[in-house]
Amino acid sequence: TYNSAIKACGVGLHWDGALKILDEMLANGVPTNVRTHNTLLDVFVRARLWKTALQLLDDMPSFGIQPDLMSYNTVLNGCLSCFQWQDALQVLSSMQREKIVPDVVTYNSLIKGTGISRQWATSLAILGKMSHNAKTPDPNIVTYGAAISSCARCNQWEEALALYNEWRTAGNEPDKMMMSTLVEQVFPNMILNASQDVPLNVVPKSCRATGSRGRFREQRDHWARALRLLQNFENCAPDMQTEC
Questions:
Q1: Where are the domains of the chain?
Q2: Which of 100, 115, 117, 175 lies at a 20 to 30 A Cα distance from 77?
Q3: Which PROSITE patterns does this one have (predicted)?
């Protein structure tokens, strides 16, 4: 089918071939549908042609086709993969204007993408919107993990720890990805700021030294011990799927 042929072009990054197939469909009077255009959007995103994907998204109504949630999420991810986080936020605004309800994947992608672009404050603002707006989906473990990673990437370790504590205070368990971020990115920054105490509730009970004074003090050997213990921490929830 035409849709399958377009999809095959995407696998091989032959975006020009995908356009030729679309032209052939139109020339032969073959109607396109939202699946056709979503497949084309995916082709352009794979080829990192985020501007072309944005243009096709805008042009879909001229074909008599209204973009759906998949259309917007595909283009949004395309913008984020090319570090165009501001354009991704514009895609979110367009969704809301068109009454397309963003799902948790939309918001998780935005938090992850803005984090990769080192926009940690924007990541936290998006998380805050999810947490305090009844019309948005509830944040999940992937949401918090992405926000923690965003803060850690920008050396905002206090913010990262606050998010971790918030997640645990709500009665949730961390997954291995979240713990990996803490061990590999957050705790090294804490070591460099050794005048700070490690909050007790950051360290899992299984990782606390028997007879300790309740805090890991500023000495570097205590920090190193905390790191080793956290690296061996295995009592975590299973990893979530990356598309969330």
A1: 1-102, 105-193
A2: 175
A3: PPR
